[in-house]
Structures are given as C-alpha cells and as structure tokens.
Design a protein that fits this description.
The chain is an alpha+beta fold and about 120 residues long. The protein has one domain (about 15-110): SH3 type barrels, CATH 2.30.30. About 15% of the residues lie in helices and about 40% in strands. It contains 2 helices and 8 strands; from the N terminus they run αβαβββββββ. The chain has helices at about 1-10, 20-30, and strands at about 15, 30-35, 40-45, 50-55, 65-70, 75-80, 90-95, 105-110. The protein has a 5-stranded antiparallel β-sheet with strand order 1-8-7-6-5. The protein is elongated, with a radius of gyration of 17 Å. Residues about 1-20 have low confidence and may be disordered.
C-alpha cells in the first residue's frame, strides 16, 4: 500500500515555484554539519553567520518555516502558506545537499502560489 500513498500525496501537494522567502534563503546557504541522531543541523549563511537548528526550531523567529526532519543528506521544513486566492495551506520544503554542503531546494505546497489568469477550458469530444 505504501507505493500508492506517494503518488496520492504528490497529486495533492503541487510542486510550485514560490515567492516565499524560505526556499530562496535555503538555496543560498551551505550545510556545515548534520547530527541526524540529535535532529540538529548547522547552516552557514552567505554573510558568514553560522546557525544551528534542532527539529522544531523556526528558520526565522517570526513564524517562519520550522525544521521537521534531519537526515545525513536531506532537511525537511514545514510552513503555513497562503495561496494566491487567499486559501490557507501548508508547504513542505525539502533541502538536499551534497558532500560540499551545496543545497538544492524543492517546495511542495497544498495551495497554489498564484491564481491562473483564465479558468481552464473544458475538454471537448
């Protein structure tokens, strides 16, 4: 049953290019070290500042994304987001990194970031 769950989850959470600040910030950081058994990660910002986060800590103090999980090659953050139509939802931010600490970021949102300008046309036979 697990193989069916992932496609269902991905059909609900649409991969979006986001205007939210967390994914853009996470693309510019380096992962210095991870301690998965402790649920901690140390990040290096472009300005040289180091920050250690533990699972549950916010990325920003003012309600930003929270660190949900740490593995040896992946970080997962969650955040509350508002869609382009005003609907509230959640965002799952997955940060993968290589041995040098360089990051690749994907954000999965339960609501679209923007509203399409035209409604989709119905299919015709």
């Amino acid at each position: 049953m697990a193989p069916l769950f992932l496609p269902l989850l991905l059909s609900v959470l649409a991969l979006q290019a986001s205007s939210s600040p967390e994914p853009r910030f996470l693309e510019s950081i380096r992962v210095v070290s991870t301690r998965p058994s402790e649920g901690k990660v140390t990040l290096l910002a472009p300005d040289g500042a180091r920050r250690t986060l533990a699972e549950g800590d916010p990325l920003e103090e003012e309600g930003g994304a929270r660190l949900k999980a740490v593995t040896s090659a992946t970080l997962v953050f969650t955040s509350r987001v508002t869609g382009g139509d005003g609907a509230a939802g959640e965002s799952l931010i997955v940060v993968r990194f290589d041995a040098s600490g360089k990051t690749r970021v994907r954000e999965y949102r339960s609501v679209p970031d923007d509203v399409p300008s035209k409604p989709p046309r119905p299919d015709r036979d």
